[in-house]
UniProtKB/TrEMBL annotation:
One of its GO terms (molecular function) is manganese ion transmembrane transporter activity. This is GMP synthase. InterPro entries: Ccc1_fam. Pfam families: VIT1 (PF01988). Keywords: Membrane, Transmembrane, Transmembrane helix. It is a multi-pass membrane protein. The lineage of its organism: Bacteria, Candidatus Spechtiibacteriota. It is found in: Endomembrane system. The keyword Transmembrane applies. The keyword Zinc does not apply. The chain crosses the membrane at residues 12-38, 130-152, 164-186, 198-219.
Length: 220
């Protein structure tokens, strides 16, 4: 769900920024569609592969650290157990509890290793399938949301670029607010605040892109 929300966020903002800049430059609607879809596909693929590689690297790093801890465990139980003691001490446990918990944890080698690495890195390992799924979800969420600013240019082809852009602003405003509000699923932030934050950020990016396009039109 998190991958979908953040990919949709990026998809709609980047595509809207492209549309804004092209409209600002006074180019034809067909050019807007071509550049919009080209940017959307390229950025969507880039974000998806980046997400996949990042998740895979995170998992590989976890497994590397786990093998290192496994080697320490094999060479010296006492040294490995001391790592557990240090972690528990940082957590505020007293000496008696530390000894009891450490003895219990060290009886299960798999949990022992996962616990140490988790406390060090702050995350559990992710499977290869999870990385693939994350990349696929990111790509299609990016495409779905990124299509929204282009809808008026697809279905309202009888309008001028400026008229279609007005509908793009309306569609994108609604979508930005909904996507921003949905981000609060993962936080304790108020959904209205989350929606307005996303709306302001996306709107700011679009305004900048629009005026850059308008400026370039005057000098090219």
């Amino acid at each position: 769900m998190k991958d979908a929300v953040y990919a949709a966020n990026d998809g709609i903002v980047t595509t809207f920024a492209v549309v804004s800049s092209v409209v600002g430059a006074g180019l034809d609607p067909i050019v807007i569609l071509i550049l919009g879809f080209a940017n959307m596909l390229a950025d969507g693929f880039s974000m998806a592969t980046g997400n996949y590689l990042g998740t895979s690297s995170e998992s590989e790093h976890f497994q590397y650290e786990r093998r290192r801890e496994e080697k320490i465990f094999a060479e010296s139980d006492a040294k490995a157990k001391q790592e557990i003691n240090d972690i528990l001490e940082e957590g505020g446990y007293n000496n008696k509890d530390i000894e009891t918990i450490a003895d219990t944890i060290s009886k299960n080698k798999k949990f022992f290793l996962d616990f140490i690495v988790f406390k060090r890195l702050g995350h559990m390992p992710r499977s290869k399938n999870y990385a693939v799924k994350s990349g696929v979800v990111t790509f299609f969420s990016f495409l779905f949301a990124g299509t929204i600013p282009l809808l008026p240019f697809i279905f309202l082809s009888d309008l001028t670029a400026g008229e279609a852009f007005v509908w793009t602003i309306i569609f994108t405003t609604i979508a930005l607010f909904v996507i921003g509000a949905s981000r609060t699923i993962f936080t304790d932030k108020n959904w209205v605040v989350g929606g307005l934050e996303m709306l302001l950020a996306g709107g700011f990016a679009a305004v900048i892109a629009y005026f850059i396009g308008a400026f370039l039109q005057t000098i090219i």
